[in-house]
């Protein structure tokens, strides 16, 4: 959900956290779930026929680079390609991760710096086709709409300039413990949350420091969400992962 929550006020988020927890019927301990207002498969087929908003201005040509092809130590856990997401059904047909070229190259440099400290990058979400943002919006009840981006405006994920990620331990391959779970809607997810263990906060702050050193900015309510500095230079895209052209070596 990430980018779409970015305009949330603190208080509306707190109220909505309570609502979302009440609505969470699933026993999964690692993902929040809601009951979609209409069948998601219907919404997907409608959204695929719709068109994103036309934006005025000059934009760079898109160059979505696949992260795992740039650096094999970048690992993926793409919940939106599985049932493990808030709509409990796959939204992506493939578990892949793309960013615009400068953001992808910056992320690879972040990974190199962290590798020297014993950690690898684990990616949860990156570029998101616009139609998926529309499905999120249409599937979400009105009282939870603030958790999802308005498709008439799109999101930074739609521009290929936002990434949700965490760290894994290079020795064990295990995901590190952070102050909250990914997509957890509580104050533990806040980038400046002062609770949790010293080790959890140290790892969260290490990720943030290395991301900031390469032009990414953390979202204050989610330690895992980062925007790349040039996001305004890219327009909303709607291309599906399987149709993204990849440069020939
Ligand atoms: Zn995000």
Compact description:
The protein has 249 residues and is of the alpha+beta class. Helices cover 27% and strands 14% of the residues.
Defining traits:
single chain; about 250 residues; alpha+beta; Muramoyl-pentapeptide Carboxypeptidase, domain 2; five-stranded mixed β-sheet; two-stranded antiparallel sheet; 6 helices; 7 strands; about 15% strand; disordered N terminus; binds zinc ion
Query: Could you give a short account of the major beta sheet?
Result: 5 strands, mixed
Number of helices: 6
Strand order, sheet with most strands = 2-4-5-7-6
CATH C-level: Alpha Beta
Under the CATH scheme, the architecture is 2-Layer Sandwich
Query: In one word, what is the shape?
Result: globular
Question: For the terminal residues, how far apart are their CA atoms?
Answer: 34 Å
CATH fold category name: Muramoyl-pentapeptide Carboxypeptidase, domain 2
Uncertain ranges = 2-29
Structural class: alpha+beta
What fraction of residues sit in β-strands? 5-15%
**What's the SSE pattern?**
HHEHEEHEHEHEE
Q: What's the mean pLDDT score?
A: 88
Helix content: 25-40%
Whole-angstrom Rg: 17 Å
Kindly state the number of beta strands.
7
């Amino acid at each position: 959900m990430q980018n779409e929550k970015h305009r949330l006020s603190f208080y509306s988020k707190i109220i909505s956290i309570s609502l979302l927890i009440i609505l969470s019927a699933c026993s999964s301990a690692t993902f929040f779930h809601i009951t979609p207002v209409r069948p998601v498969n219907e919404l997907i087929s409608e959204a695929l026929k719709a068109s994103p908003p036309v934006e005025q201005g000059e934009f760079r040509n898109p160059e979505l680079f696949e992260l795992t092809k740039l650096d094999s130590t970048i690992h993926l856990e793409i919940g939106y390609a599985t049932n493990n997401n808030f709509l409990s059904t796959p939204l992506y047909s493939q578990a892949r991760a793309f960013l615009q070229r400068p953001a992808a190259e910056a992320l690879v440099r972040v990974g190199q710096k962290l590798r020297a400290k014993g950690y690898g990058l684990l990616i949860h979400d990156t570029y998101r086709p616009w139609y998926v943002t529309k499905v999120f919006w249409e599937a979400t009840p009105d009282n939870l709409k603030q958790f999802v981006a308005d498709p008439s405006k799109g999101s930074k994920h739609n521009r290929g300039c936002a990434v949700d990620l965490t760290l894994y331990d290079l020795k064990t391959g295990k995901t590190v413990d952070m102050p909250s779970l990914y997509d957890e809607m509580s104050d533990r997810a806040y980038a400046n949350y002062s609770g949790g263990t010293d080790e959890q906060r140290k790892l969260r702050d290490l990720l943030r420091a290395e991301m900031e050193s390469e032009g990414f900015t953390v979202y204050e309510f989610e330690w895992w969400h980062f925007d790349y500095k040039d996001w305004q230079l890219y327009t909303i895209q709607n291309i599906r992962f399987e149709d993204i052209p990849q440069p020939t070596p």
